[in-house]
Design brief:
Distance between the termini: 43 Å
Strand order of the largest sheet: 6-5-4-9-12-14-15
CATH topology of the largest domain: Rossmann fold
Number of strands: 15
Oligomer: single chain
Low-confidence stretches: none
Order of helices and strands: HEHHEEHHEHEHEEEHEEEHEEEHE
Largest sheet: 7 strands, parallel
Number of domains: 2
CATH class of the largest domain: Alpha Beta
Shape: globular
Structural class: alpha/beta
C-alpha cells in the first residue's frame, strides 16, 4: 500500500516539477505526519529534493529527455551487455521485454540481428525500435503511460499481460544483491515484471556492475529464480556464488 502511494507520489511530483506540501496532502489524502515520512523516504532514495514549503523533482527535464539520460548513463556498459546477450535470442523467439533503459539499448542491437520475433513490451521506445524490423510482431501492452519511463504502467497493463506467455523474459533491475535478489523502486513496474516473470519459461537478467549490492526499495526476485545473469563484469567470488545456486553467468570475470 505505501509503496504504491510512493510510486504515484513521485510520478505526480515529476509531472509538476515543483509541488507544495498542501497540494500533496490534498491529492493523496494523507496526514501531515504521513506526508513527512513519505517525503523523507523519497528524498533518501534520491528521487526528489526538499525545498521551502514543498518538494522539487530531481532533474526537472521533460520525460523523453529523462529517459534518454538514463540510457546515456553507463552507456558503454549497456552496449557491452547487449552484445553479450544477443546469442540468448533466436529467430522466431517469443519475448517479454521490460521497460528498462538497459533492455532498450539491447533492442537497438536486436532489431538488426534477429528476425521473426514476437515481442511483448511495456516500453514505447523499445516497441518502436523493434518494429522497424518488419519481420517482427511487436505488441505494446495497454495502460496509462508513465512519462518518466515512456511505458505503460498501471493495473490495466498487468491485466493485459495475463493474455500472453513468452519463452524468455529479458529484464534489468534497480539493484541486485547476489545473496538475496533484485530490487525495484517503482511498485507498479515491479508488479509488471512479476507478471512477465511468472508467464515466461526462461528469465534473463541484464545488469551493469554499478548496480551490484544496491538494495534500496522493494525486493522483487530471488537470485535462484533467475536462469542467467549477463553483466559487463563481476568478481570470481560472485560468479561462484551465483553458479552454486544454479544461476548461469555471462560476464567478464575479475579477480
Amino acid at each position: 500500500m505505501r509503496e504504491e502511494r510512493l510510486s504515484k507520489m513521485i510520478n505526480f511530483i515529476k509531472s509538476k516539477g515543483i509541488v507544495n506540501f498542501q497540494e500533496l496532502q490534498r491529492v493523496f489524502k494523507i496526514s501531515p505526519s504521513t506526508l513527512r515520512r513519505d517525503i523523507t523516504e523519497l528524498a533518501n532514495r534520491g528521487l526528489l529534493e526538499k525545498i521551502h514549503g514543498g518538494v522539487k523533482a530531481i532533474g526537472g527535464m521533460v520525460a523523453e529527455e529523462e529517459f534518454m539520460k538514463r540510457i546515456s548513463k553507463n552507456r558503454d556498459l549497456k552496449e557491452k551487455i547487449a552484445d553479450m546477450a544477443l546469442d540468448l535470442v533466436e529467430d522466431g523467439d517469443v519475448l517479454f521485454l521490460d521497460a528498462s533503459s538497459t533492455v532498450y539499448v539491447f533492442s537497438l542491437i536486436l532489431r538488426n540481428k534477429k528476425n521473426n520475433l514476437k515481442v511483448i513490451t511495456t516500453n514505447l521506445l523499445t516497441a518502436i525500435e523493434l518494429s522497424k524490423n518488419t519481420s517482427n510482431d511487436v505488441i505494446i501492452t495497454t495502460g496509462r503511460i508513465n512519462p518518466s519511463t515512456i511505458s505503460t504502467e498501471d493495473t490495466m497493463t498487468i491485466n493485459s499481460l495475463k493474455d500472453f506467455r513468452a519463452v524468455k523474459f529479458i529484464f534489468s533491475c534497480y539493484g541486485f544483491d547476489p545473496l538475496e535478489g533484485t530490487y525495484e523502486i517503482n511498485l507498479q513496474e515491479a508488479n509488471i515484471k512479476k507478471m512477465m516473470f511468472e508467464r515466461s519459461s526462461k528469465r534473463y537478467l541484464l545488469i551493469d556492475s554499478t548496480k551490484f549490492y544496491r538494495t534500496t526499495g522493494m525486493f522483487c526476485f530471488r537470485t535462484e529464480e533467475i536462469d542467467l545473469i549477463v553483466s559487463d563484469s563481476m568478481t570470481k567470488n560472485m560468479a561462484s556464488d551465483l553458479e552454486s545456486v544454479g544461476v548461469n553467468v555471462s560476464a567478464e570475470i575479475r579477480g
